[in-house]
Write a structure and sequence with these properties.
Protein name: Methyltransferase FkbM domain-containing protein
CATH topology of the largest domain: Rossmann fold
Structural class: alpha/beta
Pfam family, one: Methyltransf_21
InterPro entries: FkbM_mtfrase, SAM-dependent_MTases_sf, TPR-like_helical_dom_sf
Strand order of the largest sheet: 5-4-3-9-10-12-11
Radius of gyration: 25 Å
Distance between the termini: 65 Å
Oligomer: single chain
Largest sheet: 7 strands, mixed
Shape: globular
CATH architecture of the largest domain: 3-Layer(aba) Sandwich
Order of helices and strands: HHHHHHHHHEEHHEHEHEEEEHEHEHEEH
Number of helices: 17
Amino acid sequence: MRGPRHRPAHRGSPAAVEISTEIGALLERNERPQALERFREAIRGGAPLPYPDDHLKTLRAANDTDSARALARDWAPQGAWTPGQIAHAAKVLFDLGDREQALHRLAEACARHPRARGLALTRARLLMLDGQRDAAIAAYEAIPDIPAKRAREVSLILRALREERVTALGFELSVPARVVPPGMLLGLIRGRYETAERHGATNGLRPGDRVLELGTGIGIMALSLFRAQPGLDILCVEANPVLEPVIRENFALNGCPAKLEIGVAGLKDGQTAFHVEANFHASGTAPRATQATRIEQREIDTNRLIDGFRPTVLVLDIEGSEIALLPRLTLDGVRRIVVEFHPAINTAQEISQTVASLLAQGFLLDLRQGKGQVLVFDRGDERTETMHERPAP
């Protein structure tokens, strides 16, 4: 019979448990310098402390990245490092923003353990996430005897890096490096991209539904909706002009007839400022990085679109602009709304007020759908059903 896959290092070590508990208590009291010094003292003294995942979680929750980085750098096992310990420690350092140190540790470790496939896979993945495309290709190609459970993923990653094309989520997709960031590419390949949004929008579709999507990205939502109900009328609005050729190519590759309009979903027809980021997810009407490129973009009156298209389902992922837009839309004919809120951009009060405005219009929050900051609102009253008995324009 197989034993547990992971056995914490402090099991059977009361001293290590006691020290870890002491450090945790100091962190809970926000006595971080004392906690770091106690941790370093224990490591120097050879105490068999487990990797400080819980302590790092506490520091990250407090937005103290510097202390978390220091803790991650200082930890060392009681004996020699194992490849698994090196890989885990490097991934944590990478996630904490210490990418150079993480990759340096991995390069040295891979030279010492040339047959350690887990180390090699971790290094290749982090090189990809760091945007080092050619180095990532070389690292993946050099992995000895890729495990069967990882072989398909590696094959898809290599094709995406070489050809800028990938088969993911059941679709053939164009994924140009200038548009699709490595983290998104990995999420697509692993089937974890916009899962809550896709499920919330596709579950419960009815014959005759008409979907208006605000914030199309590279077209994954429209493709998912079309697959769930072929013949569905879908109108997409995307503000970022850089994405237009990618969206149109992805629609063509998968035979999706969704209509596309390029412009900022707003409350009037005209022009407005839009800030294009290297990572398209960060692009929006307000700049989020100093390297953002400001352009003048077409603004589209969303209420005019609603009046002409008469959607029954509304999907929004517009990077914080949902707060200004949703409460001002005419939603009488809409029975379902799937919206991703952005707490990193908008305050809790702003999000709460937006939710309250939807509840006041007769929508109910469906907690069986959505997840995290993706919320689904639904209503099936007679008003929405009779309004959509009219033939579509």
